[in-house]
Amino acid sequence: MPEAPARRQQAILSDCEPLPAAEHVSNVNVFTAGGLGGVAAAAALALNVLPAAVDMFRVIAFPAYGNGLAALVATACAVPLHLRHVIYGLRGERPAGAMWTLAALALVNAAGVAAVGVGLVPSLALLAVSVLLVVRRPWAVPLAAAVVLSAWALAGSSPTLSGPYAAITVAWRSVTLFVVVWLVAALWQLEGARRELRDRVVVRERLRIQTELRRTVGSAFEDIISRAGRAAATTQRDAARMELQGVVDLSRQTLAHARLLVAGYRETSVRAELEAAVALLEAAGVEPRIRVADERELEATDARSRAAVRLAAAKALREDSLARCFIDVSRDADGELRVLVSSGNGSATHYQGSP
Questions:
Q1: CATH code given to domain 270-352
Q2: How far, in Å, CA of 167 to CA of 197, rounded?
Q3: pTM of the predicted model, to two decimals?
Q4: Distance (Å, rounded) from C-alpha 334 to C-alpha 273?
Q5: 82: closest CA among 58, 55, 63?
Q6: 205 or 294: whose pLDDT is higher?
Q7: Which residues, other chains included, contact 281 with Cβ-Cβ below 8 Å and sequence gap of 6+?
């Protein structure tokens, strides 16, 4: 009789296999994720298009700078090639066939300057930025410098654009555009690291919940199966009724406990916030140690308690000289969670984490 429930227990528990740990940064599309990073990426793209557009419209508006139609065609060919390099640069990647697209961009710029004239020389900044994004070090900087010097040579002694001014313009634009791309790429690397830390915390919390469910629900299943077997085997009605009543009570207790665990999982606990704080501190080069007065404090899920942990971790991260710290979690006289971060070198400086 008990064999069928036992098989059902094994089938239920077999569905709770441990989840694999998060080992990679989430693949985020920097242009569709939204938030500050998405705005910064869009701004970086627009900024890389703006100088070429300004040069093109200047040539169209003032024929003394060159052929307007040729400037339009050259800009339309050069901008997509450059933006491809910028998009991959924002992701911290190097595009496939990068050297071929870079060579094509160089040819388009050379042909554009030859067809248009000096009015398109400042647009060589796009080529210099693409060189910095695509060419591997240590050749990137010398090649970009060569592009800047070529602007001087191409402008020569033109009455509309002098050589030194052209070189300074290309250099200034190149540095500005490249720094913007580099900063946005760094921002998204930090965002990827934050997502990875968050995923690791979620995985650890899931594994903890699964372990707890195996320990409690698995044990309860064994008791339920045992009592059901005794109820089926007994021939006395009163004894069978008592066993079945015990099965019902134990089932209700197990269900209530499982619901409590699931509810705690849905709401981030202080334990999860502490794990995230420890991961961030370790990534910043700080060696954290957690000291908890009562383990039950770690299961709190209220917003004020979680905010206390985040505030204490943020204050600790702002301390550049902090190499080791102790995170003390306790309750004050009013029942509020108190998180104190103290340095490990005996310093009396403390960081109050209570909201």
A1: 3.30.565.10
A2: 45
A3: 0.55
A4: 22
A5: 55
A6: 294
A7: 287, 288, 313, 316, 317, 325
Distances in Å between the Cα of 270 and the Cα atoms of 325, 329, 333 are: 18, 10, 19
SS3 per residue for 17-81: CCCCCCCCCCCCCCCCCCHHHHHHHHHHHHHHHHHHHHHHHHHHHCHHHCCHHHHHHHHHHHHHH
What are the residue ranges spanned by the domains of the chain? 3-24+198-266, 35-192, 270-352
Question: What is the rounded average pLDDT of the residues 122-126?
Answer: 91
Instruction: State how far the alpha carbon of 167 is from the alpha carbons of 113, 151, 352, in Å.
Output: 14, 5, 54
CA distance 89 to 30: 11
List the structure tokens of 10.
Answer: 């094994």
Q: What does the pLDDT look like over 187-235, one tens digit per residue?
A: 887 777 777 777 777 777 778 777 877 777 777 777 778 877 877 777 7
**Nearest CA to 102 among 134, 144, 71?**
134
Burial class for 75, CB neighbours closer than 10 Å (0-12, 13-18, 19+): buried
Confidence of residue 263 (pLDDT cuts 50, 70, 90): low
Bridge partners, residue 292, by sequence:
329
Alpha-helix runs per DSSP H in 91-162 = 98-116, 124-134, 140-155
Predicted pLDDT at 29:
54
